[in-house]
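User: For a benchmark we're assembling, each entry needs the component sequences followed by a predicted structure for the full assembly. Here are entry 17's components. Please fill in the structure.
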Amino acid sequence: MDHTPLIQIKSLSKSYGSKLVLKHLTLDIYPGQVIGYIGPNGAGKSTTVKILTGLIPDFKGEVIVDGLSMSNNPLEIKKLIGYVPENAEIYDVLTPIEYLDFIGKLYEMEENVLHERAHKLLTAFGLAANLNDRMDTFSKGMKQKVLLISGIIHNPKIIVLDEPLSGLDANAVIMIKELILRLSKEGKTIFYCSHMMDVVEKVSDRILLINQGEIIADGTFESLKQNHSDSLERIFSKLTGREDSGNEADAIINAFD
Amino acid sequence: MDAFIDKVFLRLLIVFYPMLEKAGVNIHQLNEILRVKLLMDNRRPKAMFAARKRSAVADQSSVKSQWLIGVFALLMGFFISLLLLLNRAPLLGQSLYFTIFMVLMSLTLISDFTTVLIDTRDQFILLPRPVDDRTIAVSRILHITIYVLRLALIQGLPGIIMIGFIDKSVFASLLFLVQIIEATFLCILFVNMIYLLLMKSVSPQKFKDAISYFQVVFSSLIFAAYMLPRLINMSALMHIDLLTHWWAYILPPVWIAALNGVLIHAHQASMITSLLAIIGFTLPLIGLWLVAKVLAPGFNRSLAELAISDGNNNTAKTAAKSQKLDIRDRISDFIASDPIENAGFRITWKLAARTREFKVKVYPSFAFVLIYFLYFALNTRGGSIGQKFNQLQNGFSYLFLVYLSTMILSSILSNIAQSEKYKAAWVYYALPINRPGKILSGMYKAIIAFYFLPYCALLTIAMTFIWGPGVINDAILAFLICTACGMLLALLMVKGLPFSRPISTKQAGGKMIMSLIIPTVIGCLGYGHYLLAKHELVIWIMIIPAALLTWLMLHYYRKQTWESIELDEM
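Assistant: Structure for entry 17:
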């Protein structure tokens, strides 16, 4: 494995008004790693992702991707990253081909390369029959597949996935999990955010747990298990201070009395 | 057809590309974004313009409303083109024409296109891609331009034909076309520059509020500027020589009119006219360059922060407030005691007070009423302002003011059922509500209690100062009658529960005639009131049946069932 980090985050802080969402986050990510990024709601997960993908240009600290600084060179970094956002909007009056054509051209890809790849990817994702249908007739899962493709169409070095499995059926989930492993073998670096612990457990080779703007656990699933508990779900609730979830459920039941 | 027009417009824009490229815009991406946006617009069966901010729900009446807007623009264009007949002073006539033209355009822009400029919905599609600020900002402006240009051309068509006859040359018509494009472009740039400046100077959390207040104030101002100068005697205006006044030099419509002055009426033109014409021609270009070069950087960032601020800004505020029971909550308990009605009451005023869309559309009508009143009241023949005021004080014109206030009710009612987040209204359908009329009556009570009544109370106080305490009984009677008539309006205009329907320009067709009849009814009632106004006692007595009538109507309004409410698919 390469030992110059692909992504370096140094003392990254971000606040909304007086509320500090990220507290001096420091992190090195190496090429080919699959990072499972987990944390409770409001922990700062999506803020980190949005900074990393250049959606929030306003932050303190340093983000360096492939030797480029996010503050000076956001456009160059965006070219390296493929991003599949959570609950994403899509221009659903377009057909998948038209949409991918649009996205690819924003990356300034060559038209014939772009079209060939779009066709191949859509076919591989099982959308061959719908190439020229407008997406407003698509199911949530089909749209999600198009979004996934739009995140990898330009063959990025880094792929950031934010809850990419939402709306997908069981077969598609298995396929995506397989895809993530394959992509990482191809040398892609994957940043995977999710609440689904079982998937994170399986696909990631490094797990980061963030809570209240700080990373409180960092390591392989195996090493986390040794230090804490036996399933990722347990580890999660133990470290984020919700071990007493039994008590919470009690309180809820008691509220009806 | 539309696709063809779009292609033509896209081609036309290529003129600007070299200049934009110099200013740092990525031309290929720009072209691609515009192409796709136009393509998408054509696929949505929507009104000609102003549709882009709307959600994806197809609206059958859109084709009709597209025609309506077109016909309206054409008519408007015809009326203002009559100004061009001021042939003795072509410069003046054209300046007036373009003043009104630009005012109308700016109003349309501000009311319909603000949302397009600061639309944050596609940020997840565009921002993660390597597209820079300038390209996105310019693409938005050009996209708006294409739409506004269509409208402008329809509105300008009568003028184009008219000027051909007046100046007896086809060249004048062609030139007029150029002038119209120039005027439209100036408006777009002007409005956008103000927005971009605001974006740069105000924190994103406050930006949307700042914009909405700007919209309210600006549309009121433009409306006033549009109505009140009509009080000036037109024939006196004929003899004004514009160019002897220094202020004429800084008015954009004069620059545009100067173009015609120089090229068609060359014998009347002077050095100054030519200079003005040159300014008018180069300024849009300089403006666009300025936008791309100076104002656009940071645009994406502001957009991103805007989208985020939507979710994050209110946390601190609400925590502090929720402690004590709001007095308005107590009012709501008092006026609407039925639980379902109470829910309708509270949801209405809370959403109304916090929804920017709603405020921006409704608040200007408060000012419009006053401006209309001033216009009609002072629009009497002869006399100085002082004399007119005396006349006003002796008459019963204040009645007119109160009855005119139903405009506010109508404006509120036509917007109250619409919301961008209409999907949240699924709760109404999931809950065991037997009579939606209760929610509607709660809604109506909230509108009266928090908008109409305070406004009327303020009016009454102001009127008491001008006309004396004799107006109080009239104000009460008029208020009751307006409230009752407002319910008729509500029956017709509010076709859904509060904030439960996607935003659309026109309500379902067929009701047009009725919505014309009701103002007539209000007018007649107002006239009847006017005839009786001399008899103070009669007015006092009339209050009793009016109050009964209002109560009775509210009683029946509450009985509405689900059948009378148009459901939307969720």
